[in-house]
Specification:
Length: about 300
Amino acid sequence: MTKITAFLGVARAPFLLLPVALVLCGAGAAAYGGSVRWDRTVLALVGLVALHAAVNIFNEISDYRRGIDMETTRTPFSGGSGTLPGGELSPSAAVIFGVCMAAAGAAIGVYFLVVVGRAFVPLLVIGAVSVLGYTDFLARAGLGEISAGLGLGGLAVAGTALVQDGHVGPAALAASVPAFLMTFNLLLLNEFPDEQADDRGGRRNLVLILGRRRAALAWTVAALLVPAWLVAAVMLGLLPPAALAACLPSLLLVPAFRWAFGNPAADVPTPALGANVAWNLVTNAVLGLTLFLVS
């Protein structure tokens, strides 16, 4: 059981709930558009979980080798799992695990490329770049938050809809926007506690590029855009009025807003980090379930 726990640790298992919420959202949008296939939905979920796990594993390995995880103040939401620094799993075993997860995700991607066709090519390419390039390139070039927002946010929702019947409807496109913004924010807020360690480890994220106050402002703007976009999408007829229920989880962000508007130079309170994660998961899930109910 210790070894299983170690593998789950480097994969950051609690964070793998995100693909579940994203696929639910994308499938709900596809159902609202008139077509959902559960076999392809489940396969998309397996592939996305595998790719997300691969990103997490490669990130843990890189941060361990660069010494970042030796310097972070670990929280339940940032600073790494502590699995490799604690000697619970060898780096070589983690590498093998990561490659296996990436290969599983790639195999499912190739399958969808065959059954869906050329429309799936951009998703396959961006997915491959996000998995293989996130830790050692994108996160060091100021592109980490955007790549996460795409690969584990907007494109995951749109891609789930795409694999159903080969096209992405207006509802899926509309649902992909808050998914992008929330995953962007999920990573951004989690970077604040690791600011000094990331700087010494050579990362260039928005906290380091913009500074804490402006990065907190960027997080705030993206957070407020989520309910604003949902209202706009309903007014434009892209989403049904019932989708406004997905605005309610934004109330979870009150602790994070207090920190961002108050003193972003201070440590992010752990409740604010947790609320940021819950907001992401619950909003995607509520939107997906709502679209299923009205389809």
